[in-house]
Hints:
Blueprint: E1 7-16, E2 19-29, E3 34-39, H1 45-52, E4 60-65, E5 68-70, H2 75-80, E6 83-86, H3 98-103, E7 109-110, E8 114-115, H4 117-131, H5 146-159, E9 164-168, H6 176-191, E10 195-199, H7 203-209, E11 212-217, E12 220-226, H8 232-240, E13 262-270, E14 276-285, E15 289-294, H9 301-308, E16 316-321, E17 324-325, H10 331-336, E18 339-342, H11 346-349, H12 357-361, E19 372-373, E20 376-377, H13 379-392, H14 409-421, E21 427-431, H15 439-454, E22 458-462, H16 466-472, E23 475-480, E24 483-488, H17 495-502
Parallel strand pairs: 3-10, 3-11, 6-9, 9-10, 15-22, 15-23, 18-21, 21-22
Antiparallel strand pairs: 1-2, 1-4, 4-5, 7-8, 11-12, 13-14, 13-16, 16-17, 19-20, 23-24
Amino acid sequence: MTNPPLIRMHGVTKCFDKVIANAGADFSLQQGEIHAIIGENGAGKSTLMKILYGLYQPNGGEIYFRDEHVRIDSPRTAITLGIGMVQQHFTLIPALTALENIVLAKEPCRFKTLLDTATAHRTITALANQLGFQLDLNAKVESLPIGVQQYVEILKALYHGAKILILDEPTAVLAPQEITGLFDCLRGLKAEGTSVILITHKLSEVMAIADTITVMHSGKSVASLPRAETDTAELSELMIGKRIFNDLPTQKRSDKPSEPMLHLDNVILHAENGRALLDGIALDVFPGEIVGIAGVEGNGQAELIEILTGLRKSDSGTITLNGESFANRSPAEVRRRRVVHLPSDRHRHGISLDDRVDENLILGSHNRSPFCQHGLLKRSASQKFADNAIEKYEIRAGGVSLPIRTLSGGNQQKVVVARELENDPELIIAAHPTRGLDINAGQFVHQQLIDARNRSKGILLVSADLEELLTLSDRIAVMYNGKIVGILQPSATDEAELGALMLGGSI
Length: 507
């Protein structure tokens, strides 16, 4: 006899203006299972789970908890039901310590007024040890690597009583060894009766960890399958209507031009406290080459990109582009030199959330022909460009006049990719370009980068997805603690070796 579900969502509908995010979606969760939710960008996965967590209120449908109808009107209500969520964009307060973030709003007190730090430290340390987490609870969150910040988010949810844990794209920024550790933790939670909901685009991870898989398409639940009864080919077909095969024609170059397009020599950058953020970076990117940068986030990749895109100035060193000095240029000058940037943080550096979709698609070119004439924006030209980009890049949007914040995260990323790659760039600096994209969209972006490389463009590709780096790159530079600790040929290495270097090992 099958046990009744712990959570049952039936006929859930959610609309944002003209955009229908959920259209009668169904979902059920059993006690003590790991349940993956997959689907294309804009399929409604995150929206459905944010409804379960009380961040959004549905326009229709019902939610049952242990067979009782419930109304989850806020995260506070969700937490009282034992539901916790770790969102794709973390909600930690950087200036507070890990311990302070975890106990926030549930601080243990002595004499009803004094924070009992010792008790909190013992409780959370015991929980962390039980899960196999290694972290300094007294360290400020802003100083912690991104993978450790994720552990803090998980500990926070569990400390607040979560017995149902929702994780949105939890492996997007982790090294292979960290993913293994996270999955071991999830299996441990499952063994103790905790139920886990995993939102992800990575089918290989779904097949490695999930007990049950729900596929969403166009806001609806189209299938719910036991992992043992399906495979990645069937799942991809259910998601996007066709089977996906990882057989991109990469056509990597065997020859190399004599002079690099981008040249860096002994580039150094220090933090305000004197710590070296970049320590003697030396790197070349040749025309017609993709150079991958591997590394756990927080080891200098972000600072390297900021220097190359004009967002930050280096302390010393040489940077040239096509033989001319390129050090410490402004972002406007960088764009004039036909260098484009696909930023890792699209909300901060890639889009203007309150502006229209078509306005975001022409950012950076909005003051030039054909979008501007005599200082006035030509709306018809921007709308025509936007319509073509939406069709070409398969962007799901309710209309070009809607604010871009109404699009899903993956579709916002597609807008950034479309805008930058349609500018005929000379050098492409791509930071996690497929993060948050579904399989079909990710392969489309990969093909765009390959086509650009084959047109003799230079590409610097920073990614936490080692399969992506190994597939696309001609060479891979590994960064650790602000240094390049190795440059490898993809054909002569693997994810395990890359992961070891990323965590401070040696070749």
